[in-house]
Inverse folding.
DNA sequence: GCAGTATATTCCGTTAATTGAATATACTGT
DNA sequence: ACAGTATATTCAATTAACGGAATATACTGC
């Protein structure tokens, strides 16, 4: 894994947001779509890009694709995501918002009235 | 200064090498050219690119252009260069080689028989 | 098999980056 | 003024990245 590839991945705020969310724990495309408020094709393509870089991997569960970090996560990636989350720049604030929204979303999915299929929910918790 | 811009700068090994060399202390284009063993136009353009990103600045001294880091150097840049220098990947080894070559070069320039013009030498030491 | 849902891919136009060759600019020393 | 050196810029060709619309694929439940 070349350092340049990691920097290419980080050179776009949307990809950073995707990586930040996925790093916390696996997520499916529809939720990433919701959290980033971006069209399906865009999310799908950026995930494909991250996959060609070898940074994430996908696994199908029924209709859903679950994306997770490819192991091992390079140090360079981990430390940069950490740095960005801690920063007071606009990107840092964005990541913090995303992280909160993600927690909120997962809480909703876990609620009794949730319409989230169990196949999907279990996959997210694995 | 946007984080994405810094990552764009780092997404190319030659630019990383330039930044790594310049970070240690100012250097002129001809020496960067020598150290990276790359054609003049390429170096000049990559320096121009780094300048548009606001990461470096240039100052003319006679025939020579002295490039230095723009102040303040963003944390994100400093820590990444450090990380890369410390890494055992090929890019890390490259930076270590560059740094040694740079020291060697400056030593030669300081030697009594050096043909390096004093204007230039003094600029490099400022 | 069929309708519906989630996701990926293809097609196409647009912009950004990368390169080398040639040329221009800015300066020096004589 | 002129020749030489260092550096930057322009031009033109190539490739990479980006975005949206439309379409294809993979799966589900019935």
């Amino acid at each position: 894994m070349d350092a340049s590839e990691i920097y290419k991945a980080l050179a776009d705020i949307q990809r950073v947001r995707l990586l930040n969310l996925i790093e916390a724990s696996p997520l499916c495309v529809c939720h990433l779509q919701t959290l980033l408020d971006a069209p399906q094709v865009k999310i799908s393509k950026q995930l494909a890009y991250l996959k060609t870089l070898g940074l994430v991997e996908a696994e199908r569960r029924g209709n859903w694709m679950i994306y997770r970090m490819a192991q091992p996560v390079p140090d360079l990636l981990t430390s940069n995501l950490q740095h960005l989350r801690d920063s007071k720049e606009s990107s840092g604030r964005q990541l913090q918002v995303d992280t909160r929204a993600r927690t909120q979303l997962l809480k909703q999915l876990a609620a009794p009235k949730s319409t989230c299929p169990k196949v999907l929910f279990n996959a997210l918790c694995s």
User: Anything to note?
Assistant: Residues 28-30, 40-41, 43-45, 47-48, 60, 62-65 of chain A lie near DNA strand C (CB under 10 Å from a C1'). The mean pLDDT of chain A is 95. Residues 3-124 of chain A form a domain with the Arc Repressor Mutant, subunit A fold (CATH 1.10.10.10). Residues 85 and 93 of chain A are 7 Å apart (CA to CA).
